[in-house]
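Inputs:
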Amino acid sequence: MLASRIIAHRGCSLLAPENTLGAMALTKKLGVDWVEIDANLLGDGTVVVFHDDRLERLTNGRGKLMDLGIRDIAGLDAGSHFSQTFQGEPIPTLDQMLIQLDRDQLGLNLEIKCYPDFTPKQIVMPVIASLERHWKAFDRLIISCFDTQVLTLIRQHKPDWQLGQLWEALPSDWQTTVAQLNAVSVHLDHSTLTNAQATAIKQAGLDLYVYTVNDKVTAEQLFAMGVDGVFTDDPPCFSYFLC
Ligand code: G3P
Ligand code: MG
């Protein structure tokens, strides 16, 4: 297994505002050793760590990320929607996030969001550049995406980087896709996974990670099926796996 049994989803989004530096600091304190975050694009080409294509759900700002640049999001509050304890948490750039995670020696599943507002190339090139600037341990990095074109583009530039194909549900042609990508892992919505699929994925020599699992009983059933690790919003629920 390349990652970990427990991967903090968007940091640990039941305990802290998702995808923020504060959430990652808390995750580290909790003893989690891998995190999942979402890379997203602003209109000026800056890559930020943010799940949605609009600001409203997670900040005190308004509008689409593609209509905004780094100056427009500076000073926005991405913490108060969660609690006053996190008031003033900024939207981090990917550069800022990588510096903190690398310093804390966390493993990283970097999920690249690819909203229809931009092309795969527009986000892939700055993501690669950011990782080249600020990431050192590529053995503890898996890049994933729902969009196979995004992963194909990364593979063209980076033959050695570890890629994971994300699907909600496993498609019938999954083996062709993972072979073409030379992917190391498959990432699925846990509720769609069958025993036969889990067995086939493991027999193909791939890691299998599933989202989003916030209770122990479900996690134990999934581990028994062969799942390697779960993305969870609530890592303390799995304290027996933490350092
Ligand atoms: O990477 C697993 C999971 O995060 C994918 O869905 O919407 O939570 O980013 P989402
Ligand atoms: Mg995600």
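Helices lie at 21-29, 70-73, 94-103, 120-134, 148-157, 174-181, 195-203, 216-225. Flag for discussion at group meeting.
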